[in-house]
Amino acid sequence: QVQLVESGGDLVQAGGSLRLSCAASGSIFSINSMDWYRQAPGKQRELVALITSGGTTNYADSVKGRFTISRDNAKNTVTLQMNSLKPEDTAVYYCAALLRLSAGRGLSRAWGQGTQVTVSS
Length: 121
What we know:
Blueprint: E1 3-7, E2 11-13, E3 18-25, E4 30-39, E5 46-52, E6 57-59, E7 67-72, E8 77-82, E9 91-100, E10 107-111, E11 115-120
Parallel strand pairs: 2-11
Antiparallel strand pairs: 1-3, 3-8, 4-5, 4-9, 5-6, 7-8, 9-10, 9-11
């Protein structure tokens, strides 16, 4: 019933920029945090950036200073502004959320289907 849908993935040249967006929809009681993961071919999935409902952010060392995560709690959306892209940023980017489906229930993890980001050299 809960869906996370990413958008914005594309093919871009090194040094370029992309903006990824993720919208959560469905029956959601609350969202504690939203984050972005990525998985490059042959590599383990890694956390890129996260943001809590209170606005606290955290970034992977490899993207600090280049990527910016932001959110709109009222709209249940999160965005990832990616600047100065490098070929090593090439990966499928996944949106995720730590959320509560109803009052009194535990936290659940929701995932989007992913969006492809390809950075050419």
